[in-house]
Amino acid sequence: MGPDDHPADPDGIREAARAIRPYLPRLLDPATATRLDRALADQLTTADQLTTADPTATDRLQTLLAGNDDTAWFLTAVLTDTPHFRPPYHQPRYLHRQTGGRATPAGDPGPIAAARYTCPHGDYTWYRPDVGTPIEDCPTHHIPLVHG
Ligand SMILES: [Zn+2]
Questions:
Q1: Is 62 exposed, middle or buried (0-12, 13-18, 19+ CB in 10 A)?
Q2: H or E stretch including 43?
Q3: DSSP state letter for 137
Q4: CA of 49 relative to ligand 1 center, distance in Å
Q5: Separation of 76 CA from ligand 1 center, angstroms?
Q6: CA of 120 to the centre of ligand 1 (A)
Q7: pLDDT one-digit tens code per residue, 83-95
Q8: What does the pLDDT look like over 121-135, one tens digit per residue?
Q9: What mean pLDDT do residues 114-123 have?
Q10: Which of helix, strand or coil describes residue 90?
Q11: 121 CA distance to ligand 1 middle (Å)
Q12: DSSP letter at 22?
């Protein structure tokens, strides 16, 4: 993303910050993942308390995510998936790449979309990979995530 790009969608930045949290341990070393997870949770819960999207908190989230190549890649991928703002691992174009280039039959609707679960406090998003996977708790609030 260059400096001349149009401003990023604040909703997309917030969703990227919520949705990247389950993936931080695979994107970063453990200490950095823990530190960034805590920083993102702080900003997301602060903005939640203000009830409106706080532009300063959104700026801080963008800065946090842009601070590392892998998290910056994740943010860019989420922002280009308007209006769903899904993690790259749940976007059809990335999923097709993961199948190893196997030809998909004509009319194949592609992978079934994973169900989205969020914390009621708005600081965590998680995609359930399949119906056999137990629904997680929010790691910040220790309450079950809700579908939607
Ligand atoms: Zn939460």
A1: buried
A2: helix 30-50
A3: B
A4: 12
A5: 23
A6: 7
A7: 999 999 999 877 6
A8: 999 999 998 889 999
A9: 93
A10: helix
A11: 5
A12: G
Alpha carbon dihedral 56, 68, 1, 80, in 10-degree steps, equals -80
**pTM for the complete prediction?**
0.81
CB 96: neighbour CB atoms within 10 A?
Answer: 15
Tell me which DSSP letter residue 127 carries.
Answer: E
Which residues are registered as beta bridge partners of 137? Answer: 144
The tens digit of pLDDT for each residue in 34-59 reads 999 999 999 998 755 555 556 788 89
Long-range (24+ apart) CB contacts under 8 A made by 109-118 are 114/90, 115/147, 116/86, 116/147, 116/148, 117/145, 117/146, 117/147, 117/148, 118/18, 118/145, 118/146, 118/148
Amino acid, single-letter form, for residue 16: A
